[in-house]
Amino acid sequence: MDLVFLHGPVASGKLTVARQLSELTGIPVFHNHLVVDLLLEVFEFGSPEFVRLRETFWLDTFAAAAQAERSLIFTFAPEETVPAGFPERATSAVRDHGGRVRFASLDVSAAEQERRIENADRKQFGKLASVETLRHLRTAGSFAAETPPRDITIDTETTAPADAAAVLADAFNLRGARERRS
Question: Which residue of 55, 131, 169, 177 is 20 to 30 Å from 25, comparing CA positions?
Fold first, then answer.
């Protein structure tokens, strides 16, 4: 089981690349906003309940997938409400059941991030979609969080999503994933 842990700043193309990688390999995408959006129906973002439950959902899903030998592609944007040590806890949840975590960092310049932030597709999951809010959060240090490890780094400003997915599939030897699941 492989957990492909795609991380990077807001609007770096994590979900777009994850979807391309899923199409290429057959590995399902566990988009972080699936849990975030669910919890926002009940709890305020960043509240103690929200933070605790979000991490519990994420880690329990990783562990269950690893136990079931079901690979996943996870998207993650480091930010201040994620407790320190989350990447290590994610790695433990997977390794405890015989899986492995592959960390991929997707990078993008601040200018390109601002260009992408208001794209219509970002609103589908209630993602941050305002340049003004992005700038405010940057100034407030909201994104100055622990950065997960990097097995590979891809500049999504200069690499098309399909190309980024192909690089990841090759680097992590995932191309046979679809065949192994059949």
Answer: 55
Spatial separation of the C-alpha atoms in residues 154 and 104, rounded to whole Å: 8
Which one is predicted more confidently, 3 or 139? 3
pLDDT, average across residues 105-133: 74
**Buried-exposed string 146-165: b where 16+ CB fall within 10 A, e elsewhere:** eebeeeeebebbebebeebb
Residue 107: beta bridge partners?
155
Residue 112 and residue 65: Cα distance in Å, rounded?
34
* Nearest-5° Cα angle at 130, 129 to 132: 160
**pTM score of the predicted model:** 0.86
Calculate helix-pair angle for 86-95, 48-67, nearest 10 degrees. Answer: 30
